[in-house]
Amino acid sequence: MPTLGTLPTRNPELELTFFSQCSSTARAVEVTGVLSVTPETLLEEGVPSTLPDGFVVLIADTVPFRLRGRITTVLEVLLRRMNRDGGAGLIVSAAPGSRQPYPQSLVDLADRLGIPLLVTAAPVEQWQGVHEAIQEFRVACAERRAAQLASLVQELPARLADHRAMQRIADWLARALDVQVMVSEPDRVLVASPATAAEELAQAIIRQSVDGNAPDARSGPHTRLISLGPSSAADTVLAVARRTPFDDADLRLLRQAAKLLGLVDQARREYRAASDAVRDARGAAVELLLDGEVSKARRVMRNLAPGLLDPETARVFVVETSPSRRDAAVRRCEAVTAGRAVVVADARRHDRILVIHPVRADETDDKVAVELTRLVSVLGAEASLGGSGVYSMSLLGRALHEATTAQRFAVHQPDSVALSVRDTDLVSLLPAHDAQVWARRLLSPLMQIDTQWELLRETLPTALAYPYTVAARRLDLHRNTVTRRVARAAELLNKDFAALTDRITVGLALEIVTQRELPEPPDGCLEGGEPTLRGLLDGPQIRAWAEVLLRPACADRRDLLTTATAWLTFDAHLEATARELGLSEATVRSHVRALEGHLSRDLSSLSGMRDLLFALNLMSGTPQLPDSSRELCAAA
């Protein structure tokens, strides 16, 4: 847009100069048109009642200024009306070399009113078409401005809290005005366009801080700093710079973009504050749940997620990822759980996320677990997921312990997921190849003759798990047949099947060989010696399994694990166990039943007793496990 300062340079033929020294502010006044009048018109018709805003008034003759009296009075009225209506300046035609085209009284009045005075030495004919040219230029600027504003409107985000909105507007501003753009807070850069703009514009921000320049001021030759807040003390600042100066149209567009950026920044701050409040409330609710304060937690979450914590049971999941990616992982967990769970960043660990999934009585699907499992696979190798079983809401502290242990166990799994270690099959945790070698070496005396092996592999698993009478009925065999086959197997294996540990050992070997579809390992000695049962159980994932399995029993006020150790040592005989512990048989029986509830195992089955035996041995060293190395060497 033309200004008083650019009008002489853009139109040198007008021979236009400022009559007196003029401030930079006056030179920047926009010129919207030219109103040409003659002295005779002013004298006869007087000063127009209104003058167009931003027009310069051109007096096309200098003769009247040699006179005194009425014309001077008319021009004083003209100056006052120009001041009222926003006139840009007064121009008079004067002969080249004219020393005093303006009377001194007019000069003094113009100074007081702030109306610039200019002089043109060009003939009146040179001014023809200047007004029209200004109007055409203004139309072109308006059209360009409208196109820019329409383009800016296209950058409006659907949601003001859209975290990409500020970057898109900065990119648009950089393209529209050919500038470098940076939006920053005192301690960080929010967005920059292009990416290198932050380095160059940082100097402008530093100068502002050192010199105390207020925002919205020039801090460099062609640099602008604009506060995005409602006050000059606002923290967020828009900085722009380019090689050429900014004109008024550029600055107006810049201010409009800054307003939009300010709205986005305000929405970002308010959204962050609201998110922080919600996050803190969720964190408080989770802490209350873990402390067993279920009613208080429900009150905290009542307005945030009505009805979410109403169920009486829940599962806990633990997601571990790198600290640098945890915030993003929290948002993704919230997205995939879709309001079905409470998701919080663990306040105790910078790399862990807690997910509490309330489980309704009629809920049959497991969408939360499935979605979290899928998410962990997407997050990559550094992520892992552990889950608990279903617990009462008042026992979520225990559920967290289980989920945490499961997560440690999950690190050793191919998919980095362990949704419940308590429900994990022990045999699936054993090293597959070594387990096959151990089992086949142990059972090799039975496998020498095919017909013998076929009979024994059908009989032994049931016969070792049940009394012979029950086993015979299940196998549809005579009791004596079962007894004879078991005795033959014990003889070949050099085992005493009256001993619980021998029954468990052979039963485990039979399960590995007969129920696991794995190829038979190659014959020959293994490096480092033959696998042993103790070696098979010596792994971090199995220790984690044992810890989780026994934890509920450890929390019981009764000394259930001491009873369990004695009971297994005496081959599950109640009378001997009671005598050893000085308890009644009824007490021992009630302890065993309590253990079944805590472990979710049937302790009348061989597999249930096996899991209890191995878990106790791993955690406390007792009962002792059989050392099968002697039998293995003999078999070899």
Question: Can you give keywords for this protein?
Answer:
disordered C terminus, 53% helix, single chain, 636 residues, 5-stranded mixed β-sheet, 6-stranded mixed β-sheet, rod-shaped
Strand content of the residues, in percent?
5-15%
pLDDT < 50 runs, ≥5 residues: 213-219, 628-636
Helix content: 40-55%
- What oligomeric assembly is this protein in? single chain
Description:
The structure is a single chain. The protein is α+β, with helices and mostly antiparallel strands. Strands 11, 12, 13, 14, 15 and 16 form a 6-stranded mixed beta sheet that branches. A hairpin with a 6-residue loop joins strand 12 (342-345) and strand 13.
Chart the SSEs and their pairings:
Elements: H1 7-10, E1 16-18, H2 24-27, E2 33-37, H3 39-45, E3 55-59, H4 70-85, E4 89-93, H5 104-113, E5 117-120, H6 130-154, H7 165-177, E6 180-185, E7 188-193, H8 197-211, E8 218-220, E9 223-227, E10 237-241, H9 248-290, H10 294-301, E11 313-320, H11 326-337, E12 342-345, E13 352-359, H12 367-379, E14 384-387, E15 391-392, H13 396-410, E16 417-418, H14 426-429, H15 432-447, H16 450-465, H17 468-475, H18 479-493, H19 500-515, H20 533-537, H21 540-554, H22 560-569, H23 574-581, H24 585-599, H25 606-620, H26 629-635
Parallel strand pairs: 2-3, 3-4, 4-5, 14-16
Antiparallel strand pairs: 1-5, 6-7, 6-10, 8-9, 9-10, 11-13, 11-14, 11-15, 12-13
